[in-house]
TrEMBL record:
Matches recorded under Pfam families: LolA
Signal sequence, start to end: 1-21
Protein name as annotated: Outer-membrane lipoprotein carrier protein
Organism this protein belongs to: Asaia krungthepensis NRIC 0535
Tree of life domain: Bacteria
Length: 199
């Protein structure tokens, strides 16, 4: 595991303990000027007209995992699983839909009850309905933790970034839902194009 990944893991553990202990604030109130500057960097990154594509690995509750290819553009996330078997996940608008080709099962979940919904606002704006619960950085890595401002108990999403050539690079989505289920998506082999796809 890389030094950045280890440090990022430490940051996630810290932010989870702080946020779940009830020390969160609404919007960006209570953040330092430097933290607000970093939060605005993340907003700008997530709202650019771009598409990220690459590989993901997933670790879920009880350590069960998966892997495949992902595509992210502002307001939309697609996961195409190859492991443990072929499945597709499409998340945008108000819902997440998981289609299991092995069993034929289709699962539809409201994004208002899933931490991924915090990432898929369009545009993403910290303040208002999204609350920054923690933001921190170490050399080469930074992260921000988010919750619903009006109902933070619905879940927590931590976005972990590497810093490369003074640019943010999204590396990890770390979510805890209202039931305490913890899912981590680690991104790799990520490429970026300059425009989001047309719907």
């Amino acid at each position: 595991m890389s030094r950045v990944a280890r440090r990022g893991g430490q940051l996630v553990a810290l932010s989870l303990s702080v946020a779940l202990a009830g020390c969160a604030v609404r919007g960006m109130d209570g953040l330092t000027d430097q933290q607000k500057k970093q939060a605005h960097r993340v907003e700008a990154y997530l709202n650019r007209p771009m598409t990220l594509e690459g590989h993901f690995t997933q670790v879920g509750p009880q350590g069960n995992g998966g892997a495949g290819e992902f595509t992210y553009s502002p307001g939309a996330l697609a996961l195409d699983y190859t492991t443990p078997h072929a499945m597709t996940l499409r998340a945008s608008g108000t819902h997440l839909v998981l289609n299991d080709s092995q069993t034929g099962a289709v699962t539809r979940v409201s994004l208002s009850r899933n931490p991924l919904g915090l990432l898929l606002h369009e545009p993403v704006r910290f303040g208002g309905s999204i609350q920054v619960t923690n933001i921190s950085s170490v050399p080469g890595a930074s992260q921000i933790s988010l919750a619903q401002a009006d109902n933070p108990s619905q879940g927590l999403l931590t976005l972990r970034f590497a810093e490369r050539d003074q640019r943010l690079v999204l590396e990890t989505l770390d979510g805890v839902d209202a039931r305490g289920n913890h899912i981590v998506l680690s991104l790799s082999e990520v490429s970026e194009t300059g425009a989001s796809p047309k719907n």
